[in-house]
């Protein structure tokens, strides 16, 4: 009995003979396979590493392996997962730019490139990608607008060939007025008006266009500049694309949206209002810059005039963003002066309730270190 007991196999010894796999070792093994150009095997290792402990690096590494296999959609998704974990990881942006370029998502790739360059302006690879994507995007828009312009001119020619201009044929003096030949300048103006109407979705045929007779069309006049029409169409396309914004969920989303509407304070106010104040710390994490903090405070000052409670809530939650105290401490003299000015001219006016005034005084100590009265001693 005793002998049998001691001769029993020690399974725990067998289990300890080989170390259990861990996320770090799987990632390293994936790196080795990647160096050997065994991309499928590398993907398997990265996948096991992610399953054990998901990190931005593992997702970005697996994305790179997917790119080598031209599996752009999987690569884009992995880069997005990496950025959800670390929205300042420039390698993930760089690889998502490549993936989106492969998928033909040039506008989205351009958004990534602009943001990535703003994070790491001295990175030569990012600057190269930025230039390449910008060139491709402009080429695409130029082709699209050129086709649109040619289509517009074709439609104009067809409109000029129509015999029935109105339901009641003109007679007498009215007929003569319809047959009057426009001057080259007026004809060109009519063409420009037509092009503008067509680009906005209308038929492009106005009463003035219909009044141009076939004889008038055949008279010599200035040639239509397709490049001019294409340029204006491209500008309208860029404007309509940029203005399309959504409620941001990350610091990256916020910066892209904010920059897109930088010339429209009303839209910036609406964008800030669309974000629940309690979500600001989660959105920015450790990625809030001093410049954007100042912009948000200025925008909040505009909101303060109409909605004091919301403005106080925004200011309060911004102080909960990671490294807020450090950002305030490192503000430039110009930014500090701007903060004091906004605080003194807007947030200290007597339009808030007693509780809100008390909250603003507490927040003032966090935003305006040393008190806003320090400006009185500054050199002019």
Considering the chains and any ligands shown, give keywords for the structure.
single chain; 380 residues; mainly alpha; 22 helices; disordered N terminus
Description:
The protein has 22 helices and no strands. By secondary structure, it is an all-alpha fold. Helix 21 runs antiparallel to helix 22 (354-367). The N and C termini lie far apart (98 Å).
Coarse morphology: globular
The H-and-E topology, N to C, reads as: HHHHHHHHHHHHHHHHHHHHHH
| Total count of strands | 0
Which spans have pLDDT < 50 for at least 5 consecutive residues? Answer: 1-15, 163-223, 237-243, 371-380
Helix content: 55-70%
Spatial gap, N to C terminus: 98 Å
Structural class per helix/strand content?
Answer: mainly alpha
Mean pLDDT: 74
Number of DSSP helices? 22
What does the radius of gyration come to?
32 Å
What does the secondary structure layout of this molecule look like, with pairings?
Layout: H1 2-6, H2 11-17, H3 23-35, H4 39-52, H5 56-68, H6 72-85, H7 90-102, H8 106-119, H9 124-160, H10 172-179, H11 184-199, H12 207-210, H13 214-218, H14 226-242, H15 251-260, H16 265-273, H17 280-284, H18 290-304, H19 308-318, H20 324-329, H21 333-347, H22 354-367
Helix pairs in contact: 3-4, 4-5, 5-6, 5-7, 6-7, 7-8, 7-9, 8-9, 9-11, 9-14, 16-18, 18-19, 18-21, 19-22, 21-22
């Amino acid at each position: 009995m005793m002998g049998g007991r001691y001769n029993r196999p020690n399974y725990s010894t067998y289990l300890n003979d080989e170390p259990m796999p861990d996320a770090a070792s799987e990632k390293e093994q994936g790196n080795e396979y990647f160096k050997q150009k065994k991309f499928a095997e590398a993907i398997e290792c990265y996948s096991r590493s992610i399953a054990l402990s998901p990190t931005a690096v593992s997702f970005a590494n697996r994305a790179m392996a997917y790119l080598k296999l031209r599996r752009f959609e999987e690569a884009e998704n992995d880069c997005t997962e990496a950025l959800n974990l670390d929205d300042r990881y420039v390698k993930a942006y760089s690889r998502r730019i490549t993936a989106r370029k492969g998928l033909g998502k040039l506008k989205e790739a351009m958004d990534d490139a602009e943001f990535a360059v703003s994070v790491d302006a001295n990175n030569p690879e990012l600057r190269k990608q930025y230039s390449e994507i910008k060139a491709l995007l402009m080429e695409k828009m130029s082709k699209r607008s050129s086709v649109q312009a040619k289509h517009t001119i074709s439609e104009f020619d067809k409109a000029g060939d129509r015999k029935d201009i109105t339901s009641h044929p003109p007679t007498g003096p009215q007929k003569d007025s319809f047959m009057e030949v426009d001057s080259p300048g007026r004809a060109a103006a009519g063409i420009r008006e037509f092009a503008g109407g067509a680009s906005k979705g209308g038929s492009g045929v106005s009463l003035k266009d219909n009044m141009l007779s076939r004889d008038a069309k055949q008279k010599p006049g200035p040639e239509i500049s397709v490049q001019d029409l294409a340029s204006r169409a491209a500008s309208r396309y860029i404007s309509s694309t940029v203005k399309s914004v959504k409620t941001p969920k990350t610091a990256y989303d916020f910066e892209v949206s904010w920059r897109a509407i930088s010339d429209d304070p009303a839209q910036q106010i609406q964008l800030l209002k669309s974000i629940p104040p309690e979500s600001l710390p989660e959105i920015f994490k450790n990625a809030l810059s001093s410049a954007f903090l100042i912009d948000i405070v200025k925008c909040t000052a505009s909101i303060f005039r109409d909605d004091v409670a919301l403005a106080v809530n925004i200011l309060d939650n911004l102080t909960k963003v990671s490294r807020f105290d450090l950002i305030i401490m490192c503000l430039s003299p110009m930014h500090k002066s701007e903060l004091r000015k906004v605080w003194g001219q807007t947030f200290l006016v007597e339009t808030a309730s007693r509780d809100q005034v008390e909250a603003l005084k507490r927040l003032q100590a966090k935003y305006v270190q040393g008190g806003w009265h320090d400006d009185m001693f500054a050199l002019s």
